[in-house]
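Hi V.,

You were right to ask for the full record rather than a summary. Here it is.
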Amino acid sequence: MLSLHDINIYPSQRALSALPEGKLLINTINAHSYNVAQEDALFAEALRNGDVLLPDGASIVHACRWLKTPSQPAERIAGFDLFVHEMVALEQRAEQSEKQLKVFFMGSSPEVLQRIEQRAATEYPHLKVITYSPPYKSEFSQEDNTAIIRAINTASPDLLWIGMTAPKQEKWTYTHWHELQVNCHVGTIGAVFDFYAGTAKRAPLWWQQHSLEWLYRLIREPRRMWRRYIIGNILFIHNILRDKRTHR
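Predicted structure:
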């Protein structure tokens, strides 16, 4: 079980500039992942013990205020916000140092990764993009894990993105954290791979600014998203009420 009282949630987008350098595990939390973590102990542990946890959902921000939790995030910080911040910062570092720095994308399909490479080459010309598409299966074998970790460690990236959807990506990264011989920020950003590649459309800015990105996705993909957003939102309210009773 995961309680919002027991986790340290990052305060604001502006504060991203204060993230320390070096090996840092950055996860996000929204209503869906909060629900899943109530029943998935390893996922809850991964969210609780990562270095940085971003509030990727207005529902989390409002729930923290209502519950009067120790962490009081001022705003939503989406995975895509983190992605843009980190990529721009690394591009600036590379340009100033006149060195080509490396970004590693692990996850998704070869087609999505190819689109990412093409777009990044234009938008971040000083960065070298390295990609790895893992086998499409619910659970990796030991051989799969060894190959993924070897590829990442051999590349020795300056920024590492993991995109396999929650909770798989968070649990995988947390479980293999000490095997990853990197000295950089590591972000688990799931759908951002598809958003950046253009294979999935993110909600227009107005929907994002009014905390309705979830509704936009529901309207576009009702068959796939109805359970997550209709049943999931009801479950989220139930879990938040339980959280309040527990910490009364």
